[in-house]
Amino acid sequence: MSADYRLKATSPARAFFIALIQFLFVVYAVIIFYPLFNMIVSSFKTTREILRFPFSLPGKLDFGNYRTLWIDKGFSRFFFNSIWITLVSMIFVLFFGSMAAYGVSRYQYRLRTFVYLLFLSGIMLPLKAAIIPLFLLMKNLGFIDKPVSIILIYIAMGLPSTIFILSGFMKTIPKDLEYAARIDGCSDWMIYRRVIMPVVAPAIALVSIYNAVPIWNDFFFPLVFIQNPKWKTLPLGLTTFFGQHSTDWSLLFTALTIAILPVLILYIFMAKYFIKGMTTGAVK
Amino acid sequence: MHSIDRRTSEKLWIVFFIFPAFFVVSVIILLPLFMSLYNSLFNWNQLIRGQFAGLENFRRVFFTEPYRTRFFNALRNNVIWLLMTMLIQNTLGLFIGYLLSRRIWGSEFYKRIIFIPVLFSIVAVGFLWGLYLKPNGLVNSFLKLVGLGQYARAWLGDEKLATTSIILVNIWRWVGFPSLVFLAAIDNVPVDCIEAAMLDGARDSTIFFKVILPLIVPSILIIAVLTIIGSLNVFEQIYTMAGLDGAPNFSTDTIGTLFYRTAFGSIDSGNPEIGIGSAIGVIIYLLTLGASLLSIITMGRKEIEL
Q1: Yes or no: is domain B65-305 CATH 3.30.250.10?
Q2: Where in chain B is the domain with CATH 1.10.3720.10?
Q3: What's the domain count of chain A?
Q4: pTM (2 d.p.)
Q5: Which of A23, A102, A109, A236 has a beta carbon 3.0–4.6 Å from A222's, enabling a disulfide?
Q6: Is residue A230 part of a domain?
Protein backbone atom coordinates (compact mmCIF):
# COMPACT_ATOMS: atom_id res chain seq x y z
CA MET A 1 0.00 0.00 0.00
CA SER A 2 1.29 3.47 -0.81
CA ALA A 3 2.53 5.84 1.86
CA ASP A 4 0.04 8.60 0.99
CA TYR A 5 -2.79 6.50 2.40
CA ARG A 6 -2.13 8.14 5.76
CA LEU A 7 -4.95 9.23 8.02
CA LYS A 8 -5.47 12.93 7.28
CA ALA A 9 -7.29 15.52 9.35
CA THR A 10 -9.72 16.85 6.74
CA SER A 11 -12.28 18.15 9.25
CA PRO A 12 -12.32 19.11 12.95
CA ALA A 13 -14.25 15.96 13.85
CA ARG A 14 -11.68 13.87 12.05
CA ALA A 15 -8.81 15.72 13.71
CA PHE A 16 -10.32 14.92 17.09
CA PHE A 17 -10.78 11.29 16.07
CA ILE A 18 -7.13 10.99 14.99
CA ALA A 19 -5.95 12.63 18.20
CA LEU A 20 -8.02 10.13 20.18
CA ILE A 21 -6.46 7.21 18.31
CA GLN A 22 -2.98 8.59 18.88
CA PHE A 23 -3.76 8.97 22.59
CA LEU A 24 -5.02 5.37 22.80
CA PHE A 25 -1.79 4.15 21.22
CA VAL A 26 0.20 5.99 23.89
CA VAL A 27 -1.95 4.33 26.56
CA TYR A 28 -1.33 1.00 24.87
CA ALA A 29 2.44 1.55 24.88
CA VAL A 30 2.27 2.32 28.61
CA ILE A 31 0.25 -0.86 29.25
CA ILE A 32 3.00 -2.85 27.52
CA PHE A 33 5.99 -1.10 29.04
CA TYR A 34 4.97 -0.22 32.57
CA PRO A 35 4.55 -3.81 33.84
CA LEU A 36 8.04 -4.59 32.51
CA PHE A 37 9.52 -1.41 33.95
CA ASN A 38 7.89 -2.12 37.32
CA MET A 39 9.26 -5.66 37.25
CA ILE A 40 12.84 -4.47 36.75
CA VAL A 41 12.46 -1.72 39.37
CA SER A 42 10.93 -4.13 41.89
CA SER A 43 13.89 -6.48 41.57
CA PHE A 44 16.00 -3.81 43.30
CA LYS A 45 13.49 -3.19 46.12
CA THR A 46 12.81 -5.17 49.28
CA THR A 47 9.55 -7.13 49.52
CA ARG A 48 8.37 -4.62 52.15
CA GLU A 49 9.04 -1.70 49.79
CA ILE A 50 7.28 -3.45 46.89
CA LEU A 51 4.13 -4.00 48.93
CA ARG A 52 4.04 -0.63 50.68
CA PHE A 53 5.24 1.64 47.85
CA PRO A 54 4.51 -0.28 44.63
CA PHE A 55 5.17 2.74 42.38
CA SER A 56 8.30 4.11 44.03
CA LEU A 57 11.81 3.80 42.64
CA PRO A 58 14.42 1.81 44.56
CA GLY A 59 16.57 3.69 47.06
CA LYS A 60 19.78 2.24 45.66
CA LEU A 61 20.86 -0.14 42.93
CA ASP A 62 21.78 -3.30 44.82
CA PHE A 63 22.63 -6.29 42.64
CA GLY A 64 22.62 -8.64 45.64
CA ASN A 65 19.40 -10.32 44.46
CA TYR A 66 20.91 -11.08 41.08
CA ARG A 67 24.02 -12.58 42.68
CA THR A 68 21.84 -14.78 44.93
CA LEU A 69 19.77 -16.11 42.04
CA TRP A 70 22.52 -16.42 39.47
CA ILE A 71 24.97 -18.25 41.73
CA ASP A 72 23.15 -19.77 44.74
CA LYS A 73 19.79 -20.58 43.14
CA GLY A 74 21.20 -22.11 39.97
CA PHE A 75 19.83 -19.62 37.43
CA SER A 76 23.16 -19.52 35.61
CA ARG A 77 22.78 -23.26 35.04
CA PHE A 78 19.14 -22.97 33.90
CA PHE A 79 20.17 -20.17 31.57
CA PHE A 80 23.07 -22.12 30.12
CA ASN A 81 20.88 -25.24 29.72
CA SER A 82 18.25 -23.24 27.83
CA ILE A 83 20.92 -21.84 25.52
CA TRP A 84 22.62 -25.09 24.58
CA ILE A 85 19.42 -27.12 24.35
CA THR A 86 17.89 -24.51 22.03
CA LEU A 87 21.11 -24.36 20.01
CA VAL A 88 21.52 -28.12 19.57
CA SER A 89 17.82 -28.54 18.67
CA MET A 90 18.03 -25.73 16.12
CA ILE A 91 21.14 -27.15 14.45
CA PHE A 92 19.31 -30.42 13.81
CA VAL A 93 16.07 -28.67 12.82
CA LEU A 94 17.90 -26.58 10.22
CA PHE A 95 20.08 -29.42 8.97
CA PHE A 96 17.42 -32.15 8.67
CA GLY A 97 14.75 -29.60 7.74
CA SER A 98 16.68 -28.07 4.84
CA MET A 99 17.66 -31.53 3.55
CA ALA A 100 14.03 -32.70 3.60
CA ALA A 101 12.88 -29.43 2.02
CA TYR A 102 15.41 -30.05 -0.75
CA GLY A 103 14.12 -33.61 -1.11
CA VAL A 104 10.48 -32.56 -1.53
CA SER A 105 11.03 -29.44 -3.64
CA ARG A 106 13.81 -30.27 -6.12
CA TYR A 107 12.84 -33.76 -7.32
CA GLN A 108 9.81 -35.15 -9.15
CA TYR A 109 8.56 -38.53 -7.91
CA ARG A 110 5.33 -40.30 -7.19
CA LEU A 111 5.34 -40.18 -3.38
CA ARG A 112 6.35 -36.52 -3.27
CA THR A 113 2.93 -35.10 -2.38
CA PHE A 114 2.42 -37.85 0.21
CA VAL A 115 5.76 -37.12 1.92
CA TYR A 116 5.06 -33.39 1.80
CA LEU A 117 1.60 -33.79 3.34
CA LEU A 118 3.02 -36.10 5.99
CA PHE A 119 5.47 -33.39 7.05
CA LEU A 120 2.75 -30.76 6.80
CA SER A 121 0.42 -32.70 9.11
CA GLY A 122 3.01 -32.20 11.86
CA ILE A 123 2.20 -28.47 11.87
CA MET A 124 -1.40 -29.08 12.80
CA LEU A 125 -1.09 -31.89 15.34
CA PRO A 126 -0.71 -30.66 18.92
CA LEU A 127 2.23 -32.68 20.25
CA LYS A 128 1.14 -32.05 23.84
CA ALA A 129 -1.89 -34.29 23.31
CA ALA A 130 0.47 -37.21 22.65
CA ILE A 131 2.35 -36.78 25.90
CA ILE A 132 1.37 -40.21 27.29
CA PRO A 133 2.83 -42.31 24.45
CA LEU A 134 5.79 -39.92 24.27
CA PHE A 135 6.41 -40.44 27.95
CA LEU A 136 6.21 -44.24 27.59
CA LEU A 137 8.49 -44.06 24.53
CA MET A 138 11.14 -42.00 26.34
CA LYS A 139 10.86 -44.27 29.37
CA ASN A 140 11.51 -47.35 27.25
CA LEU A 141 14.48 -45.64 25.62
CA GLY A 142 15.85 -44.65 29.04
CA PHE A 143 15.71 -40.94 28.14
CA ILE A 144 13.66 -39.75 31.14
CA ASP A 145 15.45 -36.98 33.05
CA LYS A 146 17.96 -36.60 30.23
CA PRO A 147 18.11 -33.57 27.91
CA VAL A 148 18.04 -35.84 24.85
CA SER A 149 14.30 -36.43 25.48
CA ILE A 150 13.31 -32.79 25.07
CA ILE A 151 15.86 -32.16 22.32
CA LEU A 152 14.31 -34.96 20.23
CA ILE A 153 10.86 -33.47 20.76
CA TYR A 154 12.04 -29.96 19.83
CA ILE A 155 13.61 -31.29 16.63
CA ALA A 156 10.33 -32.98 15.70
CA MET A 157 8.38 -29.84 16.65
CA GLY A 158 10.55 -27.60 14.47
CA LEU A 159 10.82 -29.78 11.37
CA PRO A 160 7.33 -29.45 9.83
CA SER A 161 7.22 -25.65 9.70
CA THR A 162 10.88 -25.50 8.63
CA ILE A 163 10.24 -27.89 5.73
CA PHE A 164 7.07 -26.01 4.80
CA ILE A 165 8.74 -22.59 4.70
CA LEU A 166 12.08 -23.67 3.16
CA SER A 167 10.53 -25.83 0.43
CA GLY A 168 8.39 -22.83 -0.50
CA PHE A 169 11.57 -20.81 -1.04
CA MET A 170 13.46 -23.64 -2.76
CA LYS A 171 10.71 -24.19 -5.33
CA THR A 172 11.30 -20.70 -6.69
CA ILE A 173 14.98 -21.33 -7.53
CA PRO A 174 15.43 -21.83 -11.32
CA LYS A 175 16.40 -25.34 -12.48
CA ASP A 176 19.10 -23.88 -14.76
CA LEU A 177 21.27 -23.12 -11.76
CA GLU A 178 21.17 -26.80 -10.88
CA TYR A 179 21.87 -28.00 -14.45
CA ALA A 180 24.90 -25.76 -14.71
CA ALA A 181 26.31 -27.23 -11.50
CA ARG A 182 25.54 -30.76 -12.70
CA ILE A 183 27.45 -30.21 -15.94
CA ASP A 184 30.39 -29.06 -13.82
CA GLY A 185 30.24 -32.50 -12.16
CA CYS A 186 28.56 -31.57 -8.89
CA SER A 187 26.82 -34.36 -6.95
CA ASP A 188 23.31 -33.87 -5.53
CA TRP A 189 24.83 -33.23 -2.12
CA MET A 190 27.09 -30.50 -3.50
CA ILE A 191 24.16 -28.91 -5.32
CA TYR A 192 22.20 -28.83 -2.05
CA ARG A 193 25.19 -27.56 -0.10
CA ARG A 194 26.81 -25.15 -2.59
CA VAL A 195 23.99 -24.01 -4.86
CA ILE A 196 20.65 -24.15 -3.04
CA MET A 197 21.59 -23.44 0.58
CA PRO A 198 23.40 -20.13 -0.13
CA VAL A 199 20.34 -18.92 -2.07
CA VAL A 200 17.91 -19.67 0.77
CA ALA A 201 20.19 -18.24 3.50
CA PRO A 202 17.81 -15.32 4.27
CA ALA A 203 14.94 -17.78 4.75
CA ILE A 204 17.15 -19.78 7.15
CA ALA A 205 17.39 -16.70 9.37
CA LEU A 206 13.60 -16.38 9.42
CA VAL A 207 13.04 -20.06 10.15
CA SER A 208 15.61 -19.94 12.96
CA ILE A 209 13.77 -17.19 14.80
CA TYR A 210 10.38 -18.71 14.09
CA ASN A 211 11.46 -21.96 15.74
CA ALA A 212 13.98 -20.87 18.35
CA VAL A 213 11.51 -18.65 20.25
CA PRO A 214 9.00 -21.44 21.07
CA ILE A 215 11.84 -23.83 21.96
CA TRP A 216 13.51 -21.29 24.24
CA ASN A 217 10.16 -20.58 25.92
CA ASP A 218 8.88 -24.15 26.15
CA PHE A 219 7.80 -25.27 29.58
CA PHE A 220 5.51 -28.26 29.05
CA PHE A 221 8.05 -30.86 27.90
CA PRO A 222 10.75 -30.12 30.51
CA LEU A 223 7.96 -30.25 33.10
CA VAL A 224 7.15 -33.80 32.04
CA PHE A 225 10.62 -35.14 31.31
CA ILE A 226 13.12 -33.29 33.52
CA GLN A 227 13.36 -33.48 37.32
CA ASN A 228 17.10 -33.25 37.88
CA PRO A 229 18.07 -29.60 38.67
CA LYS A 230 21.20 -30.20 36.62
CA TRP A 231 19.19 -30.26 33.37
CA LYS A 232 16.39 -27.78 34.14
CA THR A 233 15.76 -25.07 31.56
CA LEU A 234 14.96 -21.45 32.38
CA PRO A 235 11.12 -21.72 32.29
CA LEU A 236 11.19 -24.89 34.41
CA GLY A 237 13.78 -23.47 36.83
CA LEU A 238 11.64 -20.34 37.16
CA THR A 239 8.59 -22.47 37.99
CA THR A 240 10.43 -24.49 40.64
CA PHE A 241 11.74 -21.27 42.13
CA PHE A 242 8.24 -19.74 42.30
CA GLY A 243 7.04 -22.84 44.10
CA GLN A 244 9.73 -22.55 46.74
CA HIS A 245 9.85 -18.77 47.36
CA SER A 246 6.27 -17.65 46.89
CA THR A 247 6.46 -14.90 49.52
CA ASP A 248 9.82 -13.30 48.71
CA TRP A 249 8.52 -10.90 46.03
CA SER A 250 11.86 -9.14 45.78
CA LEU A 251 13.56 -12.35 44.63
CA LEU A 252 10.58 -13.34 42.47
CA PHE A 253 10.79 -10.10 40.47
CA THR A 254 14.52 -10.63 40.10
CA ALA A 255 13.93 -14.15 38.77
CA LEU A 256 11.37 -12.81 36.27
CA THR A 257 13.76 -10.10 35.13
CA ILE A 258 16.47 -12.70 34.54
CA ALA A 259 14.00 -14.73 32.46
CA ILE A 260 12.60 -11.82 30.44
CA LEU A 261 15.38 -9.26 30.01
CA PRO A 262 17.73 -11.24 27.70
CA VAL A 263 14.94 -11.75 25.13
CA LEU A 264 14.01 -8.07 25.39
CA ILE A 265 17.61 -6.94 24.78
CA LEU A 266 18.08 -9.36 21.87
CA TYR A 267 14.80 -8.12 20.40
CA ILE A 268 15.81 -4.46 20.56
CA PHE A 269 18.76 -5.22 18.28
CA MET A 270 17.00 -7.61 15.91
CA ALA A 271 13.37 -6.42 15.91
CA LYS A 272 13.08 -6.52 12.11
CA TYR A 273 14.09 -10.16 11.85
CA PHE A 274 11.95 -11.21 14.81
CA ILE A 275 8.83 -9.64 13.30
CA LYS A 276 9.50 -11.20 9.90
CA GLY A 277 10.35 -14.57 11.40
CA MET A 278 7.25 -14.78 13.54
CA THR A 279 4.82 -13.65 10.85
CA THR A 280 6.33 -15.60 7.91
CA GLY A 281 4.89 -18.93 9.02
CA ALA A 282 1.39 -17.52 9.15
CA VAL A 283 1.37 -15.38 6.01
CA LYS A 284 3.27 -17.58 3.59
CA MET B 1 21.23 -48.80 -19.09
CA HIS B 2 22.87 -45.51 -18.25
CA SER B 3 19.52 -43.80 -17.63
CA ILE B 4 18.37 -46.55 -15.23
CA ASP B 5 21.54 -46.06 -13.21
CA ARG B 6 20.82 -42.36 -13.00
CA ARG B 7 17.27 -42.99 -11.90
CA THR B 8 18.40 -45.40 -9.19
CA SER B 9 20.98 -42.96 -7.93
CA GLU B 10 18.39 -40.20 -7.89
CA LYS B 11 16.10 -42.41 -5.80
CA LEU B 12 18.91 -43.02 -3.34
CA TRP B 13 19.57 -39.29 -3.11
CA ILE B 14 15.90 -38.59 -2.40
CA VAL B 15 15.89 -41.17 0.39
CA PHE B 16 19.12 -39.72 1.73
CA PHE B 17 17.71 -36.18 1.89
CA ILE B 18 14.31 -37.09 3.28
CA PHE B 19 15.07 -39.92 5.65
CA PRO B 20 16.39 -38.09 8.78
CA ALA B 21 13.43 -35.70 9.01
CA PHE B 22 10.99 -38.43 7.99
CA PHE B 23 12.29 -40.71 10.74
CA VAL B 24 12.13 -38.08 13.51
CA VAL B 25 8.67 -36.82 12.52
CA SER B 26 7.32 -40.38 12.23
CA VAL B 27 8.67 -41.56 15.58
CA ILE B 28 8.01 -38.42 17.65
CA ILE B 29 4.83 -37.01 16.08
CA LEU B 30 2.96 -39.67 14.07
CA LEU B 31 3.65 -42.83 16.06
CA PRO B 32 2.52 -41.24 19.37
CA LEU B 33 -0.63 -40.05 17.61
CA PHE B 34 -1.56 -43.61 16.66
CA MET B 35 -0.42 -44.92 20.04
CA SER B 36 -2.82 -42.45 21.74
CA LEU B 37 -5.67 -43.82 19.65
CA TYR B 38 -4.62 -47.39 20.43
CA ASN B 39 -4.08 -46.79 24.16
CA SER B 40 -7.45 -45.08 24.52
CA LEU B 41 -9.14 -48.37 23.61
CA PHE B 42 -7.69 -50.31 26.57
CA ASN B 43 -8.10 -50.52 30.32
CA TRP B 44 -4.96 -49.50 32.16
CA ASN B 45 -3.55 -50.42 35.55
CA GLN B 46 -1.00 -47.68 36.28
CA LEU B 47 1.52 -47.99 33.44
CA ILE B 48 0.48 -51.51 32.42
CA ARG B 49 -1.91 -52.03 29.51
CA GLY B 50 -4.83 -54.30 30.43
CA GLN B 51 -7.82 -55.63 28.52
CA PHE B 52 -9.29 -54.24 25.33
CA ALA B 53 -12.15 -51.97 26.35
CA GLY B 54 -13.49 -50.55 23.10
CA LEU B 55 -14.88 -47.06 23.55
CA GLU B 56 -15.38 -47.52 27.31
CA ASN B 57 -12.86 -44.77 28.18
CA PHE B 58 -14.68 -42.29 25.94
CA ARG B 59 -18.01 -43.31 27.43
CA ARG B 60 -16.65 -42.64 30.91
CA VAL B 61 -15.31 -39.21 29.94
CA PHE B 62 -18.68 -38.18 28.53
CA PHE B 63 -21.14 -39.91 30.84
CA THR B 64 -19.59 -41.05 34.14
CA GLU B 65 -18.79 -39.03 37.26
CA PRO B 66 -16.40 -37.53 38.23
CA TYR B 67 -14.97 -37.36 34.70
CA ARG B 68 -18.13 -35.98 33.12
CA THR B 69 -18.41 -32.90 35.36
CA ARG B 70 -14.67 -32.19 35.11
CA PHE B 71 -14.56 -32.66 31.36
CA PHE B 72 -17.51 -30.48 30.46
CA ASN B 73 -16.45 -27.85 33.00
CA ALA B 74 -13.02 -27.72 31.34
CA LEU B 75 -14.47 -27.76 27.83
CA ARG B 76 -16.76 -24.87 28.73
CA ASN B 77 -13.74 -22.85 29.82
CA ASN B 78 -11.94 -23.65 26.56
CA VAL B 79 -14.99 -22.33 24.70
CA ILE B 80 -14.88 -19.15 26.83
CA TRP B 81 -11.18 -18.83 25.94
CA LEU B 82 -11.98 -19.26 22.27
CA LEU B 83 -14.83 -16.74 22.21
CA MET B 84 -13.10 -14.06 24.27
CA THR B 85 -9.83 -14.39 22.38
CA MET B 86 -11.58 -14.33 19.03
CA LEU B 87 -13.74 -11.34 19.92
CA ILE B 88 -11.37 -9.18 21.95
CA GLN B 89 -7.87 -10.10 20.81
CA ASN B 90 -8.47 -10.62 17.11
CA THR B 91 -10.79 -7.62 16.71
CA LEU B 92 -8.28 -5.48 18.57
CA GLY B 93 -5.51 -6.95 16.42
CA LEU B 94 -7.44 -6.16 13.24
CA PHE B 95 -7.91 -2.53 14.23
CA ILE B 96 -4.34 -2.10 15.42
CA GLY B 97 -3.10 -3.65 12.18
CA TYR B 98 -5.38 -1.39 10.15
CA LEU B 99 -4.38 1.80 11.97
CA LEU B 100 -0.69 0.90 11.65
CA SER B 101 -1.22 0.38 7.93
CA ARG B 102 -2.60 3.93 7.75
CA ARG B 103 0.85 5.00 8.98
CA ILE B 104 -0.38 6.86 12.04
CA TRP B 105 2.25 8.96 13.78
CA GLY B 106 4.83 6.68 15.41
CA SER B 107 3.60 3.57 13.61
CA GLU B 108 7.12 2.19 13.10
CA PHE B 109 7.70 2.47 16.84
CA TYR B 110 4.36 0.89 17.80
CA LYS B 111 4.90 -1.86 15.24
CA ARG B 112 8.02 -2.87 17.12
CA ILE B 113 6.75 -2.57 20.68
CA ILE B 114 3.45 -4.44 20.30
CA PHE B 115 5.50 -7.49 19.41
CA ILE B 116 7.63 -7.44 22.57
CA PRO B 117 5.36 -9.52 24.87
CA VAL B 118 4.81 -12.07 22.08
CA LEU B 119 8.40 -13.23 22.55
CA PHE B 120 8.21 -13.75 26.30
CA SER B 121 7.60 -17.20 27.69
CA ILE B 122 4.03 -17.83 28.79
CA VAL B 123 5.44 -19.01 32.10
CA ALA B 124 7.25 -15.73 32.85
CA VAL B 125 4.28 -13.62 31.74
CA GLY B 126 1.92 -15.79 33.80
CA PHE B 127 3.98 -15.50 36.96
CA LEU B 128 4.54 -11.75 36.48
CA TRP B 129 0.84 -10.99 36.13
CA GLY B 130 0.09 -13.54 38.83
CA LEU B 131 1.98 -11.25 41.21
CA TYR B 132 0.37 -8.08 39.82
CA LEU B 133 -3.14 -9.54 40.16
CA LYS B 134 -2.72 -10.62 43.80
CA PRO B 135 -5.07 -8.80 46.23
CA ASN B 136 -2.07 -6.71 47.39
CA GLY B 137 -0.56 -6.52 43.91
CA LEU B 138 0.09 -3.72 41.45
CA VAL B 139 -3.32 -3.74 39.73
CA ASN B 140 -5.27 -3.11 42.93
CA SER B 141 -2.66 -0.58 44.10
CA PHE B 142 -3.17 1.30 40.84
CA LEU B 143 -6.95 1.28 41.20
CA LYS B 144 -6.58 2.76 44.70
CA LEU B 145 -4.10 5.33 43.41
CA VAL B 146 -6.56 6.69 40.83
CA GLY B 147 -9.49 6.63 43.24
CA LEU B 148 -11.16 3.47 41.96
CA GLY B 149 -10.38 1.53 45.12
CA GLN B 150 -13.89 0.09 45.28
CA TYR B 151 -13.12 -1.92 42.12
CA ALA B 152 -10.15 -3.68 43.70
CA ARG B 153 -10.73 -7.43 43.55
CA ALA B 154 -9.05 -10.76 44.19
CA TRP B 155 -8.70 -11.11 40.42
CA LEU B 156 -7.43 -14.66 40.48
CA GLY B 157 -9.18 -15.72 43.69
CA ASP B 158 -12.75 -15.02 42.57
CA GLU B 159 -14.42 -17.84 40.63
CA LYS B 160 -16.33 -15.34 38.50
CA LEU B 161 -13.26 -13.29 37.55
CA ALA B 162 -10.35 -15.72 37.41
CA THR B 163 -10.80 -17.10 33.87
CA THR B 164 -11.45 -13.65 32.41
CA SER B 165 -8.40 -12.22 34.18
CA ILE B 166 -6.15 -14.97 32.85
CA ILE B 167 -7.53 -14.54 29.32
CA LEU B 168 -6.87 -10.80 29.46
CA VAL B 169 -3.27 -11.44 30.54
CA ASN B 170 -2.89 -13.79 27.59
CA ILE B 171 -4.31 -11.14 25.27
CA TRP B 172 -1.74 -8.69 26.65
CA ARG B 173 0.95 -11.17 25.69
CA TRP B 174 -0.32 -12.21 22.26
CA VAL B 175 -2.35 -9.38 20.65
CA GLY B 176 0.77 -8.15 18.82
CA PHE B 177 0.81 -11.31 16.74
CA PRO B 178 -2.58 -10.95 14.99
CA SER B 179 -1.92 -7.20 14.74
CA LEU B 180 1.25 -7.75 12.70
CA VAL B 181 -0.23 -10.54 10.58
CA PHE B 182 -3.15 -8.25 9.69
CA LEU B 183 -0.79 -5.33 9.08
CA ALA B 184 1.26 -7.45 6.66
CA ALA B 185 -1.92 -8.61 4.92
CA ILE B 186 -3.33 -5.06 4.56
CA ASP B 187 0.03 -3.81 3.27
CA ASN B 188 -0.22 -6.47 0.56
CA VAL B 189 -3.59 -5.21 -0.69
CA PRO B 190 -2.95 -3.83 -4.22
CA VAL B 191 -2.67 -0.03 -4.19
CA ASP B 192 -4.91 0.17 -7.29
CA CYS B 193 -7.91 -1.27 -5.45
CA ILE B 194 -7.74 1.34 -2.71
CA GLU B 195 -6.92 4.23 -5.03
CA ALA B 196 -9.85 3.35 -7.29
CA ALA B 197 -12.19 3.33 -4.29
CA MET B 198 -10.77 6.64 -3.07
CA LEU B 199 -11.27 8.23 -6.48
CA ASP B 200 -14.89 7.08 -6.36
CA GLY B 201 -15.15 9.09 -3.15
CA ALA B 202 -15.64 6.06 -0.88
CA ARG B 203 -15.49 6.71 2.87
CA ASP B 204 -12.78 5.13 5.00
CA SER B 205 -15.26 2.77 6.60
CA THR B 206 -16.52 1.67 3.18
CA ILE B 207 -12.99 1.04 1.96
CA PHE B 208 -12.24 -0.94 5.11
CA PHE B 209 -15.31 -3.16 4.97
CA LYS B 210 -15.81 -3.44 1.21
CA VAL B 211 -12.23 -3.47 -0.13
CA ILE B 212 -9.70 -4.37 2.56
CA LEU B 213 -11.64 -6.90 4.61
CA PRO B 214 -12.61 -9.18 1.68
CA LEU B 215 -9.01 -9.15 0.43
CA ILE B 216 -7.47 -10.22 3.75
CA VAL B 217 -9.86 -13.12 4.36
CA PRO B 218 -7.03 -15.68 4.10
CA SER B 219 -5.16 -14.01 6.97
CA ILE B 220 -8.33 -13.76 9.02
CA LEU B 221 -8.86 -17.49 8.52
CA ILE B 222 -5.30 -18.34 9.54
CA ILE B 223 -5.59 -16.26 12.69
CA ALA B 224 -8.97 -17.84 13.45
CA VAL B 225 -7.56 -21.34 13.11
CA LEU B 226 -4.51 -20.49 15.20
CA THR B 227 -6.87 -19.08 17.83
CA ILE B 228 -8.91 -22.30 17.86
CA ILE B 229 -5.80 -24.45 18.20
CA GLY B 230 -4.34 -22.11 20.83
CA SER B 231 -7.57 -22.10 22.85
CA LEU B 232 -7.69 -25.89 22.87
CA ASN B 233 -4.10 -26.08 24.10
CA VAL B 234 -4.22 -23.61 26.98
CA PHE B 235 -2.06 -25.03 29.76
CA GLU B 236 0.84 -22.86 30.95
CA GLN B 237 -1.41 -19.85 31.54
CA ILE B 238 -3.54 -21.85 33.99
CA TYR B 239 -0.56 -23.65 35.53
CA THR B 240 1.20 -20.39 36.43
CA MET B 241 -1.75 -18.21 37.45
CA ALA B 242 -4.23 -20.69 38.93
CA GLY B 243 -2.28 -23.90 39.49
CA LEU B 244 -2.69 -27.37 38.04
CA ASP B 245 -6.12 -27.81 39.63
CA GLY B 246 -7.57 -24.71 37.99
CA ALA B 247 -8.16 -22.89 41.27
CA PRO B 248 -10.38 -21.51 42.68
CA ASN B 249 -12.59 -24.60 42.81
CA PHE B 250 -11.77 -25.78 39.25
CA SER B 251 -13.26 -22.56 37.85
CA THR B 252 -10.25 -22.01 35.56
CA ASP B 253 -9.71 -25.67 34.66
CA THR B 254 -9.19 -26.40 30.95
CA ILE B 255 -8.88 -29.56 28.88
CA GLY B 256 -5.10 -29.08 28.92
CA THR B 257 -4.78 -29.04 32.72
CA LEU B 258 -7.42 -31.77 33.14
CA PHE B 259 -5.55 -33.91 30.61
CA TYR B 260 -2.26 -33.42 32.45
CA ARG B 261 -3.81 -34.31 35.82
CA THR B 262 -5.47 -37.39 34.41
CA ALA B 263 -2.32 -38.54 32.64
CA PHE B 264 0.16 -37.94 35.44
CA GLY B 265 -2.00 -37.91 38.53
CA SER B 266 -2.54 -35.15 41.06
CA ILE B 267 -4.67 -34.35 44.10
CA ASP B 268 -7.96 -34.64 42.26
CA SER B 269 -7.55 -37.93 40.44
CA GLY B 270 -4.80 -39.49 42.57
CA ASN B 271 -3.16 -42.08 40.35
CA PRO B 272 -2.39 -41.58 36.68
CA GLU B 273 -5.20 -42.90 34.49
CA ILE B 274 -3.66 -43.66 31.15
CA GLY B 275 -6.86 -44.93 29.52
CA ILE B 276 -8.98 -41.89 30.36
CA GLY B 277 -6.04 -39.59 29.69
CA SER B 278 -5.48 -41.08 26.24
CA ALA B 279 -9.17 -40.67 25.49
CA ILE B 280 -8.98 -36.97 26.40
CA GLY B 281 -5.82 -36.69 24.28
CA VAL B 282 -7.66 -38.19 21.31
CA ILE B 283 -10.53 -35.74 21.85
CA ILE B 284 -8.03 -32.85 21.75
CA TYR B 285 -6.61 -34.28 18.50
CA LEU B 286 -10.04 -34.60 16.92
CA LEU B 287 -11.11 -31.07 17.88
CA THR B 288 -7.83 -29.64 16.54
CA LEU B 289 -8.05 -31.71 13.39
CA GLY B 290 -11.61 -30.49 12.81
CA ALA B 291 -10.47 -26.88 13.06
CA SER B 292 -7.49 -27.51 10.78
CA LEU B 293 -9.56 -29.32 8.16
CA LEU B 294 -11.98 -26.43 8.18
CA SER B 295 -9.08 -24.15 7.28
CA ILE B 296 -7.76 -26.46 4.56
CA ILE B 297 -11.18 -26.72 2.96
CA THR B 298 -11.71 -22.97 2.99
CA MET B 299 -8.14 -22.25 1.96
CA GLY B 300 -7.99 -25.16 -0.50
CA ARG B 301 -7.24 -23.11 -3.56
CA LYS B 302 -4.31 -21.33 -1.97
CA GLU B 303 -2.74 -24.60 -0.76
CA ILE B 304 -2.74 -26.25 -4.18
CA GLU B 305 -0.78 -23.39 -5.69
CA LEU B 306 2.14 -24.13 -3.37
Answers
A1: no
A2: 65-305
A3: 2
A4: 0.90
A5: A236
A6: yes
Least Cα separation, residue A175 to chain B (angstroms): 16
In chain B, residues with a C-beta closer than 8 Å to the C-beta of A35 are 128-129, 132, 138
Give contacts of B263 with chain A, Cβ < 8 Å: 131-132, 135
Nearest one of A127, A226, A282 to B256, comparing CA atoms? A127
Q: CATH number of the domain at A263, please.
A: 1.10.3720.10
Looking at the complex, report in whole angstroms how far the Cα of residue A123 sits from the nearest Cα belonging to chain B.
Answer: 10
Instruction: Report the alpha-carbon angle B50-B51-B53, nearest 5.
Output: 120
**What is d(CA A207, CA A277) in angstroms, rounded to the nearest whole number?**
6
In tens, the pLDDT along B2-27 reads: 556 778 888 999 999 999 999 999 99
d(Cα A53, Cα A38) in Å, to the nearest integer? 11
Shortest distance between the Cα of A215 and any Cα of chain B, in A, equals: 10
Q: Is there a contact between A20 and A7 (Cβ–Cβ < 8 Å)?
A: no
Question: What is each CA distance from B130 to A29, A95, B10, B92, B168, in whole angstroms?
Answer: 21, 39, 57, 23, 12
Per the structure, the complete domain to which residue A25 belongs is given by 16-62
Chain B residue closest in CA terms to A155 = B24
A120 within domain boundaries:
yes
ipTM: 0.90
**Residue B29, number of CB atoms within 10 A of its CB:** 23
- For A66, counting Cβ atoms within 10 Å of its Cβ (0-12 exposed, 13-18 middle, 19+ buried), the class is middle
Given a cut of 70, whether residue B46 has pLDDT beyond it is yes
Say whether both A187 and A257 belong to one domain. Answer: yes
**Domain match, A49 and A84 both:** no
pLDDT tens, per residue, chain A with 284 residues: 444 567 777 788 888 889 999 999 999 999 999 999 999 999 999 888 898 888 988 888 888 889 989 988 889 999 999 999 999 999 999 999 999 999 999 999 889 999 999 998 888 788 888 999 999 999 999 999 999 999 999 999 999 999 999 998 999 898 888 888 889 888 999 999 999 999 998 889 888 988 998 999 999 999 999 999 899 999 999 999 998 888 899 999 999 999 999 889 989 888 888 888 777 766 55
Interface test with A, best of B28, B182, B191 (most A CBs within 10 A): B28
Residue A9 placed within a domain:
no
Q: Is the dihedral of CA B194, B197, B203, B205 positive or negative?
A: negative
